[in-house]
Design goal:
Serine Threonine Protein Phosphatase 5, Tetratricopeptide repeat; single chain; elongated
């Protein structure tokens, strides 16, 4: 009798385990199936909304929790790509999840609804996270920063914590805080990997690649981009693969691997054009313009950036217009058409201010100041440099402010105010050496030597030329080493006569 009860209990236990396993496997199937189905539509919907595997998996769990009849109805909606009906179904049951899912295929409407919801429910953590992802997708840096600051007041669990770290890292990247951005991205990757948020994990690897690219850690950057690219390929996400190829191309540009960069840009642009993602296509065209500028193919670069500007104007993309104007200013400056360079630089400055992109504003203001200097409008060039320095002191930017002090030094040389010029070059050289920009420091020392030469102080002139040569050697700049060496030799010969 005892044996019968024992066997009966074993059978019940095994049956229970089987039911649990069956339920778990069925839920995993739902998650994988729904994620794959929706991801396949990302190619066609990417210009309309955001994509989050976390939200899609959450919707999959909500569908699984429904009765069989509703499950079949909801799956039929997903198979028919009728995502609006899925959103409407869950609107009363989980409003935030519904808005988040709705933002996948209709960003504008659901963003507005979510913003209104957050006004009334300011402590809804998931709502804040999704709004942060939306602002990030729209490159609204200041709004993203506000969300990130608000998120610090809350504690998150599981994958939500990963999203928080990811958004924080993006905000830190915009502030040029590469160390913190890198640390928070690594935390996000660890969390997303644990909770099977493959898309967010791929996004984080791409972000880490961008952080390393900007930090000039090229080998690690390429590894991160390659990892992200493999993940996007596994997710059948052509759009993201195209965008990563563009970022990898930018990495190759920094390494002067111009042929490989051009090939990747072309592949990326082809995909984005086919998907009718005009804004992203225009951004790639601007990068092709920059590639040609670096190769001194200015006429070809001008054609690219003119085309990009037209596309950005069509999309009403202010940030894209600003960068197009900045590239045009750069091209005209190199072509020595300083008036055209000035006009385009000023247009870039106006557009960068509209989006509060102070790094872009500073870069464009510097081109404007250089153009004014070449036009011999020294007072205006000085004022422009002062405005640039004022912007640098008030706002976080990636601009090397030493360049502004160096240009001011050149302006004062022209105005024959050698004491002020020398003070500015010394300030510049200290900043350049702190940032290990030894070629720029060497140039500052040669300008200090020029001032001493004009003042007739031969001993000081040679001292500064020696310092310039030492800095050029630190950088390994053979061309500059040769030029400075010739100057020292010439001056030594003159002194011996």
């Amino acid at each position: 009798m005892c044996m019968k009860y024992f066997l009966f209990n074993i059978i019940i236990l095994l049956l229970g385990i089987w039911l649990v396993l069956k339920s778990s496997l069925r839920q995993k199937f739902y998650r994988a199936y729904i994620l794959r189905k929706i991801a396949q539509n990302y190619f066609y919907l990417n210009d309309k909304g955001i994509f989050s595997s976390y939200i899609i998996l959450k919707i999959a769990d909500l569908i699984y929790a429904e009765n069989i009849k509703n499950q079949k109805i909801l799956l039929s909606y997903i198979n028919a790509h009728d995502f609006k009906s899925v959103t409407d179904f869950f609107m009363k049951k989980d409003k935030v999840a519904a808005y988040a899912f709705g933002a996948f295929f209709n960003l504008k409407e659901n963003k507005k609804n979510l913003q209104q919801y957050i006004k009334q429910n300011s402590k809804d953590k998931l709502g804040l996270l999704i709004l942060g992802l939306i602002y990030d997708s729209e490159f609204q840096k200041n709004r993203l920063k506000q969300i990130v600051n608000t998120l610090q007041n809350f504690k998150f669990k599981k994958a939500q914590n990963g999203i928080k770290y990811y958004l924080k890292a993006k905000s830190e990247l915009y502030d040029a805080d590469m160390f913190e951005a890198s640390a928070h991205t690594l935390k996000a990757i660890k969390i997303f990997k644990k909770h099977n948020c493959f898309y967010e994990e791929a996004e984080s690897y791409a972000l880490l690649g961008e952080i390393y690219r900007i930090s000039a850690v090229y080998d690690l950057s390429q590894t991160m981009f390659d990892t992200a690219l493999k993940m996007y390929d596994c997710l059948d996400n052509e759009i993201k693969s195209a965008q990563i190829k563009a970022l990898k191309a930018m990495l190759f540009v920094g390494q002067e691997r111009f042929g490989e960069a051009d090939n990747l840009f072309s592949q990326s642009k082809k995909t984005l054009k086919r998907a009718k993602l005009t804004q992203f296509e225009a951004e790639i065209i601007n990068q092709q313009a920059l590639l040609n500028i670096l190769q001194k193919k200015y006429s070809k670069a001008l054609k690219y950036t003119t085309n990009a500007l037209m596309l950005h104007q069509k999309c009403k993309n202010i940030s894209g217009k600003a960068f197009s104007f900045e590239l045009m200013a750069m091209i005209y400056f190199y072509k020595k058409d300083y008036q055209a360079s000035l006009v385009n630089a000023q247009n870039a400055m106006k557009n960068y201010l509209k989006t509060k992109n102070y790094s872009g504003f500073a870069d464009s203001a510097f081109i404007a100041a250089q153009s004014l200097f070449e036009l011999k409008e020294y007072e205006k060039a000085e004022n422009m440099c002062r405005e640039l320095i004022d912007t640098y002191e008030k706002h976080s930017t990636c601009f090397h402010i030493a360049s502004a002090y160096s240009l001011l030094g050149l302006i004062y040389i022209k105005l024959k105010d050698f004491n002020r010029a020398a003070a500015l070059f010394k300030k510049s050289v200290n900043l350049e050496q702190c940032n290990e920009r030894y070629t720029a420091a060497a140039t500052d020392y040669t300008n200090l030597a020029l001032i001493e030469k004009k003042l007739g102080h031969k001993e000081n002139e040679l001292r500064y030329l020696d310092a310039a040569l030492e800095n050029a050697k630190k950088q390994g700049d053979d061309k500059l080493i040769k030029i400075i060496g010739q100057q020292i030799k010439k001056q030594t010969v003159l002194d011996n006569k």
